[in-house]
Specification:
Structural class of chain A: alpha+beta
Strand content of chain B: 5-15%
Radius of gyration of chain A: 20 Å
Distance between the termini of chain B: 31 Å
Structural class of chain B: alpha/beta
Strand order of the largest sheet of chain A: 1-2-3
Helix content of chain A: 40-55%
Shape of chain A: globular
Oligomer: heterodimer
Helix content of chain B: 25-40%
Largest interface: A-B, 34 and 27 residues
Shape of chain B: globular
Largest sheet of chain A: 3 strands, antiparallel
Strand order of the largest sheet of chain B: 2-8-7-6-5-3-4
Strand content of chain A: 15-25%
Number of helices of chain B: 12
Order of helices and strands of chain A: HEEEHHHHHEEHHHHEEHE
C-alpha cells in the first residue's frame, strides 16, 4: 500500500517543471538505472542571480518523481547560496513527509541540486567524490560524506535507517560494519558539539528584549509569510528562558496535522538561525 | 470507480459457492470436531469431505495424505523441516534461485544453521536447467525443493521429471504448488512427489488455510505440536469453516480448470499481445509456451514499476510489480535477477494475473490505459526510449 501524503500524490500525478532546459547554467545528474532511480536537474539564473528557471527529469518511483517536482518548486527564485542550504528534510517537509523507506528520494533531490550548483561553479563531478570522501557502499556508490550528512541531518541510529535515507547498505550488505562505524563517529562528534554547546553562546549574553527581537524577526521574515500563503498565521506570545511560546492562527489553528510538523519546522529554523537551545511550545 | 482486479497471484476473491459452503460453520455448526457429543462430532464428517475434495484436486489416491494447515508457507515449512529430520547428518539442500520466500527464506535461515544450499539457476526466459539440477544432487543431499510454477512470471517447471530424478537418487522431493494448484492439472498418484504445498486463498478460498500433501511413507515431523488433530500431524483445533471452504474451492477448481486454460488464457494473451504491440520497448518476461494460463509479466523500458502501479491504481487497476523500490530491496526481484533481465526493464516490470472472474471489459480497460501510463512516465524519465 502507498502511504503517501496528498502532496506526494499531487506532485506525482501533476509533476511541476518537467523537462530539460536548453543551454542551462547548471546541470546535476545523480543516480543510475542500476540503482533504480535517477534524476537530471537543470537550471538557469535570472538577471539578479536567482534561479529563474529549473526543470527536472526523473526515473524512479512515485516519491522520487514527487521529490524532484517539490525540489524545483522550493528552489525557484532562490539565490544559489540559499539553494545550497536546502536539505532533504526541507523536501520531505514540503511534501508533508515521506515514508521512512522512501527518504532516499528526498536525499537524491538534494544531491542533484548540489551537483547542479557545483557544475555551475565549474567544479567537476570527479572533484565531488574527492570532496565527499571515499565510497562506502560499492553497490550504490554512496560516499562517506553523504552517509555522515544523512546521519547528522536526520538523527539516524541504525544501518536500516541509513539504508532508508541513502540506499547505502541496501545491496550486498558488505558495508554494514562501515556504516555502523560512521554512526558511532557522528554520535561522538555530536557529543563533542554538545559539550561545546554548554559554553555560553552569543545568544545567551543578549538581554531579554534583544532575544525577543531576534526571535520575532525570524518568525516575521521566514515563517509567517509561508503560513499566510496557505491562509494560516502565528503569533509570538512569550519568551521564557529558552522556550518560545507561539499561538497558531487562521487555517493552522485546530489542524492536528499542522501542529506537530509546524512545531518541528519552527523549532528547527529557530535553532539554526538564533540559538540551538531554543524550544517551541504551542499555546491555545 | 470499479476495481479491475488483475492481481490474482497475490490473492483471489472468495468464490460465492465457497462462501456459501463455509458460512454454516461460522454460524450454527460451531462445534469442535473433537468433541464426544453429536453437536461437535457431526462437524468432523465435513472435514473428511473437504479432505477428499482436496485429494481429488491433486490426484492423491488417499484423502488421508492431506494435512490441513494455516497457509502455503506453513505447508512448505513443514515439508522442508520434515525432510530434514529424516537424517540430520545430511546437510545439503538443492533448490532453485527463483523460489517463493516461503522456501527461500527458510533455506537462507538453514544456511546459518550449517546447511549448504545449492540454488539452481534459470535461463533468460525463466526455464530451469534440469541437467544442472540433476548434477547438483550429492550423497549428502537431504532434500530437493522446486516450485511447480513461478509466482512472478508464471513459468512452469518440469516437476514430474525432477521428481523422477529424485526418486532414482533416493532424495526426498518437495514442490511448492501454491501458484499451480487449480490452474494446471496436478496428479501426484503417477508422480513420485513426497511433499506438495497448496494455499487456499490463491484458488478462491479464504486466507488462513492451506494443505500439505504427504506421500505415504515420506518422513514427517509435526511443525505445530499439540493435540491429536490431523492424526497427530498438526496440532490445534481445526479451522473448520476455512477447511470446508478449501474443499469447496478445490472442487470448484477441478470444475473450472478447463475454462482456466481456455478463456482465461485467451484473455491473458489478448492483454499481453495488445500491450506489447501498443507500447514501444515492452517485453514479456518468462517463456510464453511454458507458463500458467493466467500470468503475464511485462517489462517496460526506462520506467519504474511502482510509478506504473500507482498510475494503474488511479484507474482502479490492481497489478503488482517485480521490483520493489523500497530501500530494503532496491534491486529488482530475485526472480528477474536470476533471469538476468537488464536493469532498464527489470525495474519497470509489472505482473498481471487474471482469474476466472476477469472480464473482457476489464482487459480492454487495461489495454486502453497502459500506453498512456507508460508514455506519461517516459516523458518524465531522463532515459531515452524509442517511440
Amino acid at each position: 500500500m502507498w502511504d503517501y501524503t496528498k502532496e506526494v500524490k499531487d506532485h506525482f500525478l501533476n509533476p511541476r517543471n518537467v523537462g530539460e532546459i536548453e543551454k542551462p547554467d547548471g546541470i546535476g545528474e545523480v543516480g543510475s538505472m542500476a540503482c533504480g532511480d535517477a534524476l537530471r536537474l537543470t537550471f538557469k539564473l535570472d538577471k539578479e542571480g536567482r534561479i529563474g528557471e529549473v526543470k527536472f527529469k526523473t526515473f524512479g518511483c512515485a516519491s522520487a518523481i514527487a521529490s524532484s517536482s517539490a525540489l524545483t518548486e522550493i528552489v525557484k527564485g532562490m539565490t544559489l547560496e540559499e539553494a545550497e542550504k536546502v536539505t532533504n528534510k526541507d523536501i520531505a517537509e514540503y511534501l508533508g513527509g515521506l515514508p521512512e523507506a522512501k527518504m532516499h528520494c528526498s536525499v537524491m533531490g538534494r544531491e542533484a541540486l548540489q551537483a547542479a550548483i557545483r557544475n555551475y561553479r565549474g567544479v567537476g563531478s570527479d572533484k565531488k567524490k574527492i570532496i565527499d570522501g571515499k565510497i562506502v557502499c560499492q553497490c550504490f556508490g554512496v560516499t562517506e560524506h553523504e552517509i555522515k550528512k544523512a546521519i547528522k541531518d536526520n538523527h539516524l541510529a541504525t544501518v536500516e535507517e541509513v539504508t532508508n535515507y541513502t540506499k547505502a547498505g541496501g545491496g550486498c550488505g558488505n558495508c554494514h560494519d562501515d556504516i555502523r562505524t560512521l554512526i558511532k563517529e557522528v554520535f561522538l562528534e555530536a557529543q563533542q558539539e554538545e559539550a561545546n554547546f554548554e559554553k555560553p553562546t552569543q545568544y545567551d549574553i543578549l538581554t531579554n528584549i534583544q532575544k525577543i527581537d531576534r526571535v520575532s524577526h525570524l518568525l516575521n521574515d521566514m515563517i509567517r509569510p509561508t503560513l499566510q500563503r496557505d491562509g494560516g498565521d502565528l503569533e509570538l506570545i512569550d519568551l521564557d528562558n529558552n522556550v518560545v511560546f507561539i499561538k497558531l492562527k487562521g487555517a493552522c489553528s485546530g489542524c492536528i496535522g499542522a501542529a506537530s510538523t509546524m512545531k518541528d519546522f519552527i523549532e528547527h529554523k529557530l535553532k539554526d538561525d538564533v540559538s540551538p537551545k531554543l524550544r517551541v511550545k504551542e499555546v491555545n | 470507480m470499479k476495481t479491475v482486479y488483475l492481481d490474482n497471484n497475490a490473492t483471489t476473491a472468495v468464490a460465492p459457492e465457497v462462501l456459501d459452503a463455509m458460512l454454516p460453520f461460522l454460524k450454527d455448526l460451531y462445534g469442535n470436531p473433537s468433541s464426544m457429543h453429536n453437536f461437535g462430532g457431526q462437524v468432523g464428517k465435513f472435514i473428511d469431505k473437504a479432505r477428499e475434495q482436496c485429494a481429488a484436486l491433486i490426484g492423491a489416491k488417499r484423502a488421508s495424505d492431506i494435512i490441513f494447515t494455516s497457509c502455503g508457507t506453513e505447508s512448505d515449512n513443514t515439508a522442508i523441516m520434515s525432510a530434514l529430520s529424516a537424517d540430520p547428518s545430511k546437510k545439503h539442500i538443492v533448490t532453485t534461485a527463483v523460489e517463493h520466500p516461503a522456501v527461500r527464506a527458510l533455506c537462507q535461515k538453514l544456511v546459518k544453521q550449517g546447511y549448504e544450499v545449492t540454488e539452481v539457476g534459470v535461463d533468460g526466459s525463466g526455464i530451469l536447467n534440469v541437467e544442472y539440477l540433476k548434477n547438483a544432487i550429492r550423497k549428502d543431499t537431504t532434500l530437493v525443493s522446486v516450485m511447480w510454477a513461478n509466482n512472478e512470471t508464471g513459468v512452469l517447471f518440469p516437476v514430474e521429471e525432477i521428481a523422477k530424478i529424485c526418486e532414482e537418487k533416493n532424495v526426498p522431493f518437495h514442490t511448492d504448488a501454491v501458484q499451480a494448484a487449480g490452474k494446471v492439472a496436478i496428479n501426484v498418484s503417477n508422480t513420485p512427489i513426497d511433499y506438495l504445498a497448496v494455499s487456499g486463498h490463491k484458488l478462491h478460498a479464504p486466507k488462513g488455510v492451506g494443505f500439505l500433501y504427504l506421500k505415504r511413507g515420506a518422513k514427517y515431523s509435526p511443525f505445530i505440536v499439540g493435540g491429536h488433530q490431523e492424526r497427530g500431524k498438526r496440532g490445534g483445533t481445526e479451522n473448520v469453516a476455512s477447511i470446508v471452504a478449501l474443499g469447496a474451492a478445490a472442487e470448484l477448481a477441478i470444475k473450472n480448470i478447463g475454462r482456466e486454460n481456455k478463456e482465461v488464457r485467451l484473455l491473458r494473451d489478448k492483454l499481453e499481445n495488445e500491450i506489447i504491440s501498443s507500447v514501444p520497448d515492452s517485453f514479456v518476461h518468462g517463456d510464453r509456451d511454458h507458463r500458467l494460463p493466467n500470468t503475464s509479466n511485462i517489462g517496460f523500458k526506462n520506467v519504474e514499476g511502482e510509478a506504473i502501479l500507482l498510475l494503474l491504481n488511479e484507474y482502479g487497476i490492481c497489478a503488482s510489480s517485480g521490483s520493489a523500490c523500497t530501500s530494503g530491496s532496491l534491486e529488482p526481484s530475485h526472480v528477474l535477477r536470476a533471469m538476468k533481465i537488464p536493469f532498464d526493464r527489470a525495474h519497470g516490470s509489472i505482473r498481471f494475473s487474471l482469474s476466472g472472474y476477469s472480464t473482457e471489459k476489464e482487459i480492454e480497460h487495461t489495454i486502453e490505459k497502459m500506453p498512456k501510463i507508460i508514455e506519461k512516465l517516459r516523458s518524465i524519465s531522463p532515459f531515452k526510449s524509442r517511440g
